[in-house]
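[job 0412] stage=fold_complex status=start
inputs:
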Amino acid sequence: MRRGAWLGLLIPLVLAVAWELAVRHGLASGRLMPPPSRLAQTARALSRSGELQTHVLATTQRVGLGFAIGAVAGTVLAMLNGASGLALRLLDPSVQALRAIPSIAWVPLFILWLGIFETSKLALIALGVFFPVYLGLLTAIQSVDRKLIEVGRVFGLSRTEIALRVTWPAVMPAWIAALRTGLGLGFMFVVAAELMGASEGLGYLLLDGQQMGRADTILVAMIVFAVLGKTADSLLVAASRPVLRWQDTHRLRL
Amino acid sequence: MSALLVRGLGKTYADDTEALRGVDVHVGEGEIVAILGGSGCGKTTLLRLIAGLDEASAGTIAVTGENTVISAAFQEPRLLPWLTAGANIAFGGRRLGAAERRDRTQSLLRRIGLAGYGKRWPRELSGGQQQRVAIARALIGHPGVLLLDEPFSALDTFTRASLHDLLLDLWRELQPTVQMVTHDIEEAVVLADRIVVMRPHPGRVQETLRVGLPRPRDRLAPEFDLVKRTALRAVNRSPAPPPEPHRTGPGVSPWL
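[job 0412] stage=fold_complex status=done
writing structure:
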């Protein structure tokens, strides 16, 4: 680990210990803001009953599938519009117009069209992932250094070869960054989708905690979200590392 | 072997700027011809047209002979940053078989003094090293015609001189027909068999000089200096760019 990385843990640790002591000595009730020991207890209980695993699995599946659909659609459309001026003029204005609609605004329509179960949730997540991936990749394709494209042309590469051997590697870093943004939004929209009606998932757990007046359940769900999101992002970064080795390594350490 | 024949080449851009008018250039088999001129005389435009990067408005470009493969090195190295030095060289040899491409990459790395640097990333190389890789990339595919667009202009004097020697060594060995562009008179006299001096606005050929010095050329020899002066005189005969047209406000007569 980087030197001094432990320093960042100092404030959360001090706050946690201070809160724990405050509740133990009766300075605070801890009902609305339960101390760390209560959270640990709740988490243990939830995982012993298998409830936590069910919720994590449901949320992970939704994010995974929704992200996959949104990322593939965004990537394919950006590649098409990046490659063809006709496609760009035909499709991009409509995509940009749709992008101007806040994604959550689609929820009522999705529920009407697709029902209240999985399909409408996946549609919302996929939509949220689609836009940043599309926009990030298209912008990158459009700003590839013309001088590098010319190298491909001088050495007699065909359009397809230039796309595969020059443009694609050149946009790879921006594409990975767009996927990371998309993944983050995927987690945001899975919460929205699950808050709107689900029988399982971490979002359901949040809502359940609110309705039962269990702040500890809510906080546990939030912490699990943080861990899931960070893990997913780290996996994405690790998977992209081999193809981004040519970049300055310190740029990857985020 | 191959020769390059440019006839009546003209280029007018979409905004009506005329960059080239009626340019004739002939580069014989295995010859090195330097296009010499200041900025705005269309020398880079000429090279871009020959390389097929832009379309000519008039005239013809023909590569004759058994080998019509054209390749180029630019003012900047333009290495692909996601490929190692070796892979960048190999990029230029896509027409070769895999085994030959590998062998030639290795031998070119040795020839440009970068044996053992094949696995380095471009960003880990100095400017001169990058430009050497770019020249190797241009040569790996056995080009009949090699185009060089001021490839040494961004380098310091010492690096430039060593790259001149390297280029001449490789040229002797591989015998490509070389069409280069430069604004450096000494560079033209060191490298070229013939020097085509261009004049600006629009770019045209002013005159062609035969260098006629045996190689290797001694930059300090009096004959060398003589040719350099002849070239300098030719460049000076090419008129300076005309002054910007006098701008007048609306309704103001230009005769006032």
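[job 0412] summary: The CA atoms of residues 6 and 113 of chain A lie 49 Å apart.
[job 0412] exit 0
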